[in-house]
């Protein structure tokens, strides 16, 4: 799998070298309090209802140590995702999200079937047994997408220069995904974006000692 | 306040004192009782408020946990995940209202992430009426909030919490009626009624209450009249007094909400009422017995005092034989004993006084008794009278000594009376002589006139006695009286053990000398110049100028004739003639003097003085004196 990934990166580099008109977009994402956001998803979509060509792939979201790995997975519409269980206990992966309402009832190891994501949108993943397990499959209809690293930076390469709509999303984003028009020029494009995140509501696990003021 | 008797003063005083003490005790106890009852009620109501709060807190906690647990139920989430309204409402009814029946939830509402209504178990709720509760939850770290609202005319406790399933981000709101859940349970525990009072920034209203209608209606009147204070107060509900307490629960955008609790003061005071009655009885009994005790005590004092007072009154009137008869060991007994001793002492003193009055004159006795008896005296102007029986020896002849004493006492009785009649004081009896004082110990400015009047009365009294004596065949008495007036020393003389109240001085001696001269001149009474000077009432006849024994200066002596007011023309003429004759005599014109005296003697044979001068003139004519002659008679008789 790793060799395969390296090969594809190498191919992209070669392509950049061949197609002189190709462009890059590098972005740094932070929130309103200037904290770099990890797992922020940025993707470009076509303007005026046009469609961009993209390919479907089979993707994998692991469950390791009762966590989804990776926490945020970007897939193209129509791609299929496998949810292999690497823990020695059962998991019950599900989502009630509108783009994809599904469940993989208690299973061990690699489930026999792949889950197909036919609609674009954010699909929130959870485990019926482990409340805290949280994962996201962001389904996009574009080949130009990336998610930010720990320091909030990301890069989308091999973009055909032109006008696009740039989409931003983050698990803690306050409100709907943000969209803005953007012009991608040949060569390196860069931008800095601040997203408004919300404070997370804590899960109720044990009786609280907080004073409610009666 | 004036009391006529000690007894009534004592009774009124003690009754007032006791009544004051008892009534103030009663008032204080009563106030303390009311205060205690109020405190007890306040304490009970504080417990009730606490019970209510704890129950509410516990209910809300339970809701958070049980509803929170339900919202993680996969089947429940699946039902919501269908996004089908009927399915969701059905799931909320089944999984929350029916399954968590112990929480008695009456309402479940599902809201989307923004707080818009998705589904409600109550069909009447078409939208989210309480968006502020969502806002409050959004700012809570666990996404939870609660508040009291009015729903279907009753107070409802709402609780909101998040549904945080993958793909479903929503709020679930549940509610329960406070009256049926919290108030009823609080009443079960504390037996106290609780009402929920709300103020929606315009008016107060009771949202829910466990009070009976009869009380609730009155409470609503208080609420509408806005007469309830924020603290405790006493209000009237259905003609019963209640202590009412208001405790704030919460302030939310809909209203300020508190609970009102009442405890019956009248019921709490019932046991104290019985105590008050018992106390009143005790007070009355003690007041009555105290009155009896005071009556007895005052009788035991006033009765003997009355007795004593009567005895003392009699003693005051002079009945010294009075004795107080009761015997007691206390102060009154001692007082009675002292009164008895005093009466005895007074009786003894009276005896002494009576005796003294007999030995000395009344005036001297009074003087002696009124002052401290001590040696020494004072200078005073007095008239001193001396009288003596001239022919005492003749009177004694042929009579037994007791007979003589009897005659003398008869004489003294008469003479003494004449002295006392004119404020004279018999100083002493010297054999058959009497010495009397005028102007001592009591001073009189007219002491001379008193003495002269006295002397004239003495002569008159003697005449009467002599008639008595003549009838008895006793020879008549003749007396001579000498009166001198002037400064003498008056006081007690003698030794410390034995003393006399008397007078001494030259003037006393002169009076005695004058008495001695009476026989010589044939006058019954002779007065000194000093006496004449002080006298205003009497007309005098000058008798002579004499040099008495022991005196260098010549003294003019006189004889009283009559009161000035009774002077007749004839008498005045006679005195004038006498004065002229005396003048001739002193100018050595003895022949003419003799003629005049002879003439006067013929006209007034009873005046022996004229005869005396006639003879003296004859003697001087016969043998004229050699050398200087000063018309002063030298007399060496006593």
The helix-and-strand class of chain B reads alpha+beta
- This entry's quaternary arrangement is heterodimer
CATH architecture classification name of the largest domain in chain A: Sandwich
CATH architecture of the largest domain in chain B: 2-Layer Sandwich
Output the CATH class name of the largest domain in chain A: Mainly Beta
Q: Tell me the distance between the termini of chain A.
A: 59 Å
> Would you identify the regions of chain A where 5 or more consecutive residues have pLDDT less than 50?
1-19, 209-214
Using the alpha-carbon principal axes, give the shape of chain B.
Answer: rod-shaped
The string of secondary-structure elements of chain A, in order, is HEEEEEEEEEEEEEEEEE
- The spatial strand order of the largest sheet of chain A comes to 6-12-11-8-9
Helix content of chain B: 40-55%
Fill in the CATH topology of the largest domain in chain B: Beta-Lactamase
According to CATH, the fold-level topology of the largest domain in chain A is Immunoglobulin-like
Q: What's the number of domains of chain A?
A: 2
Characterization of the model:
The complex is a heterodimer of chains A (214) and B (638). With 214 residues, chain A is mainly β. Chain A folds into two domains: 1-51 and 145-198, Immunoglobulin-like, CATH 2.60.40.10; 55-140, Immunoglobulin-like, CATH 2.60.40.420. The longest helix of chain A has 17 residues, at 2-18. In chain A, the strands form five sheets. A five-stranded mixed sheet of chain A has the order 6-12-11-8-9, with no helix packed on it. Chain A has a four-stranded antiparallel sheet with strand order 13-2-15-16, with no helix packed on it. A three-stranded mixed sheet of chain A has the order 14-1-17. Helices cover 8% and strands 44% of the residues of chain A. In chain A, strand 4 (62-64) and strand 5 (67-69) form a beta hairpin. Chain B has 638 residues and is α+β, with helices and mostly antiparallel strands. Chain B is built from 17 helices and 19 strands. In chain B, strands 11, 12, 13, 14, 15 and 16 form a six-stranded mixed sheet that branches. Chain B has a five-stranded antiparallel sheet with strand order 2-1-5-4-3, with helices on both faces. In chain B, strand 4 (154-165) and strand 5 (168-177) form a beta hairpin. The longest helix of chain B has 65 residues, at 6-70. The mean pLDDT of chain B is 87. The chains are: A mainly beta (214), B alpha+beta (638). Chain A binds chain B through residues 92, 94-98, 101, 123-126, 128, 131, 134, 199, 201-204, 207-208, 212, 214, and chain B through 53-54, 56-57, 60-61, 64-65, 68, 72, 74, 77-78, 80-81, 83, 141-143, 146, 162, 164-168, 249.
